[in-house]
Amino acid sequence: MYTMIVYHAYFKYVAFAVAAVVFPVIGLVLLKIIQKLTTGRCTSLVCLNGKTAIVTGGGSGIGFETALLLAGRGCRVIIADREDATKAKTKIIEVTNNTNIVTKHLDLTSFQSIRKFAKEINTTEDRLDILINNAGAGAVANKHTDDGLHITMQINHFGPFLLTHLLADLLKKSAPSRIIWVSSASAFFWNNLTVKNLNYSEKQPLNFLRASFIYGNSKLCNVIAANGFAERLRKFGVTSNSLHPGLVNTHIHLKTARILGIETFGKLFTNTVLFLYGKSPKEGAQTTIALAVSNHLKTVTGKHFWDCRTFVQPPKTWKKTFCNEIWSKSEELTKLKPEEKLPVESF
Description:
Distance between the termini: 98 Å
């Protein structure tokens, strides 16, 4: 006697298998659509003829796209970079026909370099309308610079903190002017910032977790610095805001993974998550450009932005005493002279 095989009894299992494959794919497609639809775009058409902007780290990545978009509006752009940015300058001139592009050497790991750069700017430039503190690093190494500071913290926080102080008078002279700090979502989630670990000890070995905390701490400091300058320069017509550019597909992720000894994971992350869901550098520059040019933001200061929109500030920045302690310690560690410090203006 033969047993009849009832094929339709297996249909439900086939249906489950198909659903298990299709639904996640549909979900991923929807996620991509949502990501594209919610990506902020600067819609301002403001012309920047007669304006001068400095973009740190403007030779590559988000910084290059920022410099390119500013140049396209007629702005005089000073690309401040540790690496030779001649190719970036040539490309920008070729694309925009704006020949008013300058490259200058700036090494944020050296206070001497920062002071030399600032002195040159203050001597040769008549105005500075936009200062964009864009340059940054992921995990560089677990070492200290010649200035005695952790290298990641110096590149991401102490360097731009000192630079902005040194250019404050020129920004005041050029008012209304704007300071823009490129921070990160890490300022919200990956940090353990205290006054004591502001300058992280090199005695502790570097691993993925510590490197993430150091990076997050530096990006939290960006928001604290942005708010501090906003408070101190508001009276002079200088605004200061911070932003998260989004998950952007740039070389910084792979470089960080290589330093931490997880290059294979870094390549996998870059070739999958970043390739599929990361923003392009041009998309990542949109919020920076909006803060630099938009008329409706010209008096907005002390705010944090995601995708060209105002966003809630990291919780630790809500604590005024804590922020003041970080500011004061940063003044000390960057060896600011008394006359270079910016007092809080009373109203």
